[in-house]
Structures are given as structure tokens and as C-alpha cells.
């Protein structure tokens, strides 16, 4: 059984060590890092999972991003991820618990669309993410179009095209 705590309560060095273990140090070259470049993760939506010994088992970070449409308008969104779990603890439910914590923390009175890059079969089945509305979206680096996913209560607010990048106000 895991304990979920605010990520802000975890030593940043431990977070970086966990991310390196889960994704390897070359993770910084991934396109997702370019999408959120220059922003800070959102403390109210970012969490850590502790194992039964109160040791760090996993983390989730959420980031302020925006889709800039072809007319130059910015549509704010929340980028979910990375969801990172120590390799020897993967498949034990930590990732699902972290995703549930982050998605539950989003204010239902004014929910921004959430985006992530991930396995569509998994994230659609368990969390309602889909690539049905992201076919015309671009990222600032290489990516598989089918893995760009979005979750929103109102798909009508989503632009058909645009470039996803950091939200800077």
C-alpha cells in the first residue's frame, strides 16, 4: 500500500534520482522536456508515492503548458507527467495511484484540458485520455502523433491545430 504526499515535501535531489532511475539521465533530451521548458511544475497537482517503508517509490509532476493555435491564441492546459516509478516497483499500482491523485486534484469548477505523451491504450482505458482531438497538434521536437493524448470534459474548447509549448502567461 502506498502513501501519497505532496511532491513539494520531497527533497529535489531524490526526485531527480528517481527520474534518472525510471527514465535514464538522457531523459532531458526528450520532446516533453521542450514542451515544458522554462516552467516550474505545479505543486498543487504534483505528488510522490511512498512504499510501505516510507521510501520514495514514484512521482508525478504536472506542468503549465499552452497550445498556441494558428491565429496565435494561447489555450492553457496542464501537461501530466512524467509519471515515474522505480523500475523494481513498476506494475504494483504506484503509477495508477499517482495519476489518480493528480487528476483528482484538478479543480472540477474550472478544469483545464490535460495533455500527456503516453500509451493511448493504457491512458484511455484507465483515465479517459484520447488522441481523437490531437491529430493537428505539433510539439517542439520528434514524437509519435498517436501518443499525444488529451483529456477534457468539453472537447469543443480544443483547437484543431496548434503548437504545444510552455505556458508563460
Helices and strands, with pairings:
Elements: E1 3-6, H1 12-23, H2 31-35, E2 47-50, E3 56-68, E4 74-85, H3 94-105, E5 114-117, H4 120-127, E6 136-138, E7 148-151, E8 161-166
Parallel strand pairs: 4-5, 6-8
Antiparallel strand pairs: 1-2, 2-3, 3-4, 3-8, 5-7
What does this structure look like?
The chain starts with a strand and ends with a strand. 22% of the residues lie in helices and 30% in strands. The mean pLDDT is 95. It has 169 residues and is an alpha+beta fold. It has helices at 12-23, 31-35, 94-105, 120-127; strands at residues 3-6, 47-50, 56-68, 74-85, 114-117, 136-138, 148-151, 161-166. It has four helices and eight strands. Strands 1, 2, 3, 4, 5, 6, 7 and 8 form an eight-stranded mixed beta sheet that branches.
Amino acid at each position: 500500500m502506498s502513501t501519497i504526499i505532496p511532491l513539494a515535501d520531497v527533497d529535489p535531489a531524490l526526485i531527480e534520482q528517481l527520474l534518472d532511475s525510471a527514465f535514464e539521465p538522457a531523459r532531458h533530451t526528450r520532446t516533453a522536456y521542450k514542451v515544458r521548458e522554462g516552467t516550474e511544475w505545479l505543486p498543487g497537482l504534483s505528488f510522490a508515492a511512498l512504499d510501505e517503508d516510507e521510501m520514495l517509490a514514484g512521482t508525478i509532476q504536472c506542468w503549465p503548458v499552452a497550445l498556441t493555435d494558428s491565429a496565435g491564441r494561447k489555450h492553457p492546459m496542464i501537461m501530466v507527467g512524467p509519471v515515474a516509478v522505480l523500475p523494481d516497483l513498476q506494475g504494483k499500482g504506484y503509477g495508477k495511484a499517482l495519476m489518480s491523485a493528480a487528476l483528482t486534484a484538478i479543480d472540477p469548477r474550472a478544469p483545464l484540458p490535460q495533455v500527456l505523451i503516453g500509451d493511448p491504450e493504457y491512458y484511455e482505458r484507465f483515465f479517459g485520455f484520447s488522441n481523437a482531438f490531437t491529430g493537428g497538434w505539433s510539439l517542439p521536437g520528434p514524437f509519435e502523433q498517436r501518443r499525444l493524448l488529451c483529456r477534457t470534459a468539453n472537447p469543443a474548447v480544443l483547437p484543431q491545430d496548434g503548437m504545444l509549448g510552455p505556458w508563460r502567461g
